[in-house]
Amino acid sequence: MAGARLELQDAPDIDHRVKQQAEAVAPPAPNAVPHVESVQAHFQFTGTGQEYFRIWIVNVLLTIVTLGVYSAWAKVRRLRYFYRNTVVDGAIFDYHGKPMTILKGRVLAAVLVLAYKVAFEVNMAAAIGIGALLLALMPWLLARSIRFKLVNSSYRGLRFRFSGTAWQAYKMLSLFPILFALIAFYAWNVWVMPPGSAGTWTVLIGVSLGIATLLTVPYAHFLLKRFQHNSAYYGHTPVFFDARPNDFFDIYWRAIGYLMLGTISAGLFLRLTHGLFEFMQGTMFGWMFTMLYSVLTAYAIYLFVHPYLQAKIQNLVWNYTEIAGIRFESRASTRKLLMIHATNLALVTVTLGLFKPFAAIRVMKHRVESLTMLPDGDLEVFLIEHAGDNGDALGQEAGEFFDIEIAL
Amino acid sequence: MIDAIYYDGRHTRRHQVTVVIHKRVIAMRGEEGLRRSERLSRFDISERLDAAPRILRFPDGAFIEVRDQKKLDKMLALNRFINPRVVRWQNNWPLSLGALLGVLVFLAATYSWGLPLAADALAMHMPASVEKRFGDASLEMMEGKMIAPSKLPVAEQTRLRALFAAMLQPRGEKTPYRLEFRASNVGPNAFALPNGVIVMTDELVYSVNDDEAILGVLSHEMGHLKYRHSARQVMRTAGVGLVLNLWVGDVSSALVVGPSLLMKNKFSRDFEREADNYAIEMMAANRRSLAPMADMLEAMQKFKEKIEKKAKEVRKIMSAQSRAEAAEREAEYGPGGGPQTVEEEADEIEDVELTDEEYDKIGVKRERKKGPPPDYFSTHPSDEERVLKLRAAELRRIAALLTAPAAPAPAVAPAAAAPAAALAPSAAVTAPGAIVIPAAEAGAAATSVVVPPKPKLPASTPAYSDDPIGDPDYQPPEVVSRPSKRAEAAQPSTELSKPRR
């Protein structure tokens, strides 16, 4: 059992293990391969904004010119760029997804969405039927999507695999329908409520909805990450994921704290700039200013929470992921990500979106380079021992008729 | 010969190898007798990236990783290997910038033609039921909050309805509409809703006191209905939002608000101009003067300026108060003791009144004297522009009338179906002084007298009665038959005047 074997470890424990490994390192294997010292292997990201900008802009143009058909090829190019520029222990990752498979998935998704829209115009019942069907298909599609991604990823020529089943996805995602139902119930209530009695009900339902969200979202996030990592294989070597739901809850509680902190600072900001605000409102562009002001305030709050969640969730997920003795350490920094996101936002705004590829590279560089691989012994020896052939992975790949991306 | 690393695709073991490409065959050689060769054409050769190694993949999945890019390039070139076109494109700065240019051109074209065209086409296919739902919903939403039942006498309402119903639409079209009056807390205003309802506020009727101005406003709203502006606005805004979202994407949807709002305002201004043009056509077709409408717009603008001036005065008084406080402080700290605040300095500067010549002398450019302010942020064209246009149209109309004095009887002879509630006599004649151009005034007054629809009522009946129900010929004008199953569109809130925010 993974849980029994892999005790949760704090940072000091990891340090201790690293020292042990350092003592136990065997002399380099006698083959002539340029041996990289593999006690601790830092992840490196070698992509640059300038290079990615050229790839991106050509992708954008070709996607426009081909009315979106090229987007599948663009995706492959983009992922290859990111994978091949991710280096650990002197070796790169690679992506093997086939554009045609992705295109088929995209066409299918477009058809489904179009069917939904058309049904919505024609007949409400049909629309609800198709919507329900889409929802029902979602877990199955999610399982496929994760499998496609893993099966088409490789490191040193060995593919990853995924054994998660659609049934597991159904069990996991059953939480989301509950949440959806609650939101729908809320919306319906607000819509139907007579104006007089709306107040208390709205508040009541809003509060219960908030609590439901607070209770389900962190747990759902935990389930998703466990589903992704715990059913994954590198070659024939299983990946274990042993974080607990509580870890996710902790992060989300703090995120709420950040949200509140953001609100307090935003409130303070509003109070301090009260006079200026009043003055600006009196001018010709007053309404515009009001709007910009509220958007800025809202975004200021989001800007705090987003990097926090991004950094902490990444750290949590990778610190509790293990591939047969290889552990990972992730030290993504909220503060640095906050700086990156803030400057990205400013520059993307100023350049009307042209900074986007640079922004993507900056975020990716920080996230990748905060990862370290901590092998339990000599990585080279381990990798040779744990090798397996790609037969299964290639079999799985052949089974993929289409790939649908699901952003979760 | 290039040093490289070989992976067999089944194991993660690295093999140090040397690679040679000759006569379009790639051959590699490693330790322990490792040898492999294959035709170049059967390899999958990855695109060249700056930092990442290049991958030469055998058909069976085994591959060679080459880090020495320059040597490999040379060898591949010698063996007539040509990179795919896209790869050459993205590896080349000038060509990539060309792509950037292409994207920008595309975006600009989409912005100025593609989006409006596509959105308008979609809007024309919007089901009437949807438009009606939109219109009904927005009317319901405003009812009780922004507008209340009209306090205008029923007779006046009836009269105005009949007056407008007697107007012909410029090209004989029959855009269905329903004219409603409402008391409002937004002041003098009128707007058209997508369900074909034109709402005019009591305040407008009271403040204008000139039937031709009211008819002009109603014609303008009719233009909104005729061109289905609200459906088009909804579609265009949605389209802009979609495109911008695709472009900006994951960074932040909040960013999209600003630009899409600017575009929304541009569309709104275009629609207002279109509606003004329609009003000009409609008024001309009915031989009505546009001058009262222009006067009204001017008066409204003056009123707004007055309010702004008042607000400025209030601010001045407030700053004077703060100056009094400063004086107190001075008394406390002694003369010049308290530091002068920036606001005080600014106030002093503001208090100095300079004439234009003086401003010119010191070389200060004052923008507000240089014509109307830029209208990027406004939903309406500037009042100056609208007034000028209306006046010019009026001039043209009068000129046309003067040059063709023997024109046949006006084509505006009331349609037989027009409700016969009679017009007040004052309504028929352009108010004197309403036309700015004195030379033309006499002619205009003489020729632009609108022939009022001949009352069908017996002479004994008063021109209009307070009781439409007692009026045997009374037909409620607001009941409009809808010839097409699709309701004609209108703006959910195409207000006549610039809303003050």
Write up this protein.
The complex is a heterodimer of chains A (408) and B (501). Chain A has 408 residues and is α+β, with helices and mostly antiparallel strands. Helix content of chain A is 68%, strand content 10%. Chain A has a ten-stranded antiparallel beta barrel, surrounded by six helices. In chain A, helix 3 packs antiparallel against helix 4. Chain A is globular, with a radius of gyration of 24 Å. The N terminus of chain A is likely disordered. Chain B has 501 residues and is of the alpha+beta class. Helix content of chain B is 49%, strand content 11%. Chain B is built from 15 helices and eleven strands. In chain B, strands 4-3-2-1-7-6-5 form a seven-stranded antiparallel beta sheet. Chain B has a four-stranded mixed beta sheet with strand order 8-9-11-10. The radius of gyration of chain B is 36 Å and the shape is elongated.
Strand order of the largest sheet of chain A: 1-2-3-4-5-6-7-8-9-10
Number of helices of chain B: 15
Secondary-structure element series of chain B = EEEEEEEHHHHEHEEEHHHHHHHHHH
Question: How is the main sheet of chain B built?
Answer: 7 strands, antiparallel
> What is the overall silhouette of chain A?
globular
Distance between the termini of chain B: 74 Å
Instruction: Note the main sheet of chain A.
Output: 10 strands, antiparallel, barrel
Q: Looking at the structure, what is the overall shape of chain B?
A: elongated
Portion of residues in beta strands of chain B equals: 5-15%
Helix-strand topology string of chain A: HHEHHEEHHEEHHHEEHHHEEHHEHH
